[in-house]
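During the reporting period the student researcher (J.K.) took over the structure-prediction task from the postdoctoral fellow and processed the backlog of single-chain submissions. One of the processed entries is reproduced below for the supervisory committee.
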Amino acid sequence: MLSLAILGFLAEESMHAYELRRRISDLMGHSRPISDGALHPALTRLRASGLVERVGQTRGSGPPRQVMSLTDAGRTELLRRLAEPEETEITNGSSFFTLLAFLGRLPEGDQARVLRRRLDFLEAPASFFYRDGEPQRAEDVEDRYRRGMLLLARASSRAERAWLRETIAELES
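J.K. obtained the following structure tokens:
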């Protein structure tokens, strides 16, 4: 997801690696901070692949500031990754939110197709806890904290499914 976030933010504007790291950290939240030790190797891989380029930007009398920019190949790769997300980018909530942050770059028909994949995933029976191979419902769990997990997940899933249905309907009309 780090490379998708890099491509997505650089599609918006060229920026210094420090600003890029800050924006990615803001998007991914405090639970998944992005360090320089993760960002710089990712940028190096994207540059080696021809998706990102580093350009010196002059500013006053100081040395040129190194700014990252997306190449045409990078824009093409971003659109491909958005239109054809991996299964984990649909099923993992954090990964899906990263995908969602840049999904507006796709044509509406492609947006609807990606959102429908997420909706299909959310509508399949699932749980954090299973008994005899069947997902446990919150009402069947005695432990209050596990029940709380299930109730919170149910409420979040309902809200997300409602938003997905509404947005898909708008995109398809």
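The committee noted the following: Helices lie at 2-12, 17-28, 36-48, 72-83, 87-91, 93-102, 108-123, 144-172.
J.K. will present the remaining backlog at the next meeting.
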